[in-house]
Write a structure and sequence with these properties.
homodimer, 228 residues, alpha/beta, Rossmann fold, DNA polymerase, domain 1, six-stranded parallel β-sheet, 9 helices, 6 strands, hydrolase (chains A, B), S-2-haloacid_dehalogenase (chains A, B), HAD-like_sf (chains A, B)
Chain lengths: 228, 228
């Protein structure tokens, strides 16, 4: 391995994220608990999110708009203004959540800084991800942040071109096999998977990955052993 | 001038945009014409947009959410579900608009390609701006697109660092004096202003710019004379 650039996924790799979304969805489910089961409500939101991905992309604003649509469908448009405002507020609260670092992230970045060009490569809302990187206090470890509209092979291909780097010199580290690992391996890059205790339904895959350029670890500090 | 990178603003510089927003706002005003004058309705939307900028940033999803808030305020939350859906649809229609190039954009890009590194530097929704660049058919002229969370001096500073270029070797071309010209001049870069026939209220400034690194032109093809 002759890695030159290491890209870290952000949400649930550097800092906690999915539990905030779960909490937000719980609030939505509470508002509509008389309409359907929690499982049905979560499916409904997901359906609208996936349907809207091609135009909205990822992130909290898209999530908010999809919750609104789910609520309108669920109530057969008998939604009152106060409830709509509460849905908007669920989204705004997500955008104002504190950034809580995952354990040992800072120690690992300290050890890697100067030895590699470190970047953040994430999906989500542009403004929100910039805000979180700022609030995390991790900004000075990274050369820059790449907010990607998606994490398909094509998106990584564009990013690698922009970074002017060959795939074999690039390492992606993240918690999503689907978004952080598979497309990078397919391009000839390296990838490390660090699982997070909960995964968004949309990011789940149901097969195992075996590849010479792939490593799975349990904790972020194990990547130091891989890179030495 | 020893320009190495030329960055083009996208909306209302490469392709039409503001008229689509005007049309969207007209549709909103029609929905609520019994509540307030058009001028009052437009102000109300703008107020919510500006208030939400720090968390939502720019773009159509933010615009949609701000229209929804404006409608809730206007009706004192007596908003029915069908109208809410229409507001969401106004936003979605904007995200599906065809991309109409401005005159002579393609000729100018053809003349500059190969002589400079050309990029797109724009605000707005990440997904939407990537979509528009793709649909415009202009993608192959540009090294890449930078979707910026805002266009302040700090945002340009970060971008120039990422591009690994000195400000004096950088030229920004766009229709907004506030976003495309002033911050770039303040950093020591070059800027060319090409006015568009209509400007979003938020982008207006009320003074004239005189600066050795600044040129104002009427049409995009005039930049070829400046660069030869």
């Amino acid at each position: 391995m002759n890695i030159q650039i290491i890209a870290f996924d952000a949400d649930d790799t550097l800092w906690h994220n999915e539990p905030y979304f779960d909490e937000a969805q719980d609030r939505f489910c509470e508002l509509f608990q008389n309409y359907a089961s929690k499982q049905e409500l979560l499916s409904l939101i997901l359906n609208h999110q996936v349907k809207n991905l091609p135009i909205y992309g990822f992130g909290i604003k898209a999530f908010t708009l999809s919750m609104m649509e789910a609520a309108l469908q669920l109530t057969n448009h008998q939604l009152n203004g106060k409830t709509m405002e509460l849905i908007i507020q669920i989204g705004k609260d997500l955008l104002l959540k504190p950034v809580e670092l995952l354990p040992e992230v800072e120690e690992v970045l300290t050890a890697l800084k100067g030895k590699y060009k470190l970047i953040v490569a994430t999906k989500g809302d542009l403004k929100d991800q910039h805000r979180k990187l700022h609030d995390s206090g991790l900004g000075h470890y990274f050369h820059h942040i790449e907010v990607m509209s998606d994490k398909t092979e094509m998106d990584y291909e564009k990013m690698l071109k922009r970074l002017d780097i060959q795939p074999q010199d690039f390492l992606m580290i993240g918690n999503s096999l689907k978004s952080d690992v598979l497309p990078v391996l397919n391009l000839g890059g390296h990838a490390v998977h660090i699982p997070y205790h909960t995964t968004w339904e949309y990011e789940k895959i149901d097969f195992e990955i075996q590849h010479t350029n792939f490593k799975a670890v349990e904790h972020i500090n194990e990547i130091l052993n891989l890179l030495v």
